[in-house]
Amino acid sequence: MRNVMIAGNWKMNKNVNEATELASGLVDELQDGTGSVDVVVCPPTVDLKNVADVLKQSSAQIALGAQNVYWEESGAYTGETAPSMLTSVGATYCIIGHSERRGYFGETDEDINKKAQALLAHHIVPISCCGESLEVREAGKHVEFVVEQIKADTKGLKLTDPSQYVVAYEPIWAIGTGKTATAADAQEVCSAIRSTLKEIFGEELACGIRILYGGSAKPENIKGFLQEPDVDGALVGGASLKADSFAAMVKAAK
């Protein structure tokens, strides 16, 4: 059985003091525990250490994730962050392949694959994003498009346990727009992702890999998504920036 995961992507929000306050607020909101729900928060890189300290001091059942990584171990890569640097601050998850990284910074499936390889080598779980534009969806090619992303992003990956890898399906047209895919829309693509993962990793592993939905997910709609058989949680953007709203999603998933 796959545990539900609720992961918060803070994006480029919250300075160090604000991040510490948000993390503390989340700890307070979830002081009664998270049950079988796995909770991850992904603050900006400059906030990772402070948030890690809050989580460690509170013994909270909340994991720390990063928003990006580079695939080299070290070197002249100004502005980048190596996997070992993430490990050193206690990050155990890392978002890769987000549509904003692909769209604004030109990241390719090859880049995402290299990042996944590097993260796995350092025992950090990739939360690997995929998703289609409105143009692709309206052309009826969204399933085919996402399947090709999955195949490219996972090329050559070696998994021994399904907990080592997470997929996040985020239709680009639903991110930060207020538009939300229906639960049936999410299930259609997440089911195709699951089938593709079975082809790549085999039935047993693929059945254990969690697939999250992202794209204007919020407390009011999370239960509907979680009723679908291949939707195992959510990658949350705006709703993760307030402790009460994010905690409400976790509680709804319990």
From TrEMBL:
InterPro entries registered for this protein in UniProt: Aldolase_TIM, TIM_sf, TrioseP_Isoase_bac/euk, Triosephosphate_isomerase, Triosephosphate_isomerase_AS
One Gene Ontology biological process: glycerol catabolic process
Pfam families registered for this protein in UniProt: TIM
Gene3D superfamilies in alphabetical order: Aldolase class I (3.20.20.70)
Isomerase keyword on record: yes
Active site location: 98 (electrophile), 170 (proton acceptor)
PROSITE patterns cross-referenced by the UniProt entry: TIM_1, TIM_2
Domain of life the protein comes from: Bacteria
Reaction equation(s) it catalyzes: D-glyceraldehyde 3-phosphate = dihydroxyacetone phosphate
Location(s), subcellular: Cytoplasm
Similarity comment text for this entry: Belongs to the triosephosphate isomerase family.
Role summary: Involved in the gluconeogenesis. Catalyzes stereospecifically the conversion of dihydroxyacetone phosphate (DHAP) to D-glyceraldehyde-3-phosphate (G3P).
Complex and partners: Homodimer.
Name of the protein this chain belongs to: Triosephosphate isomerase
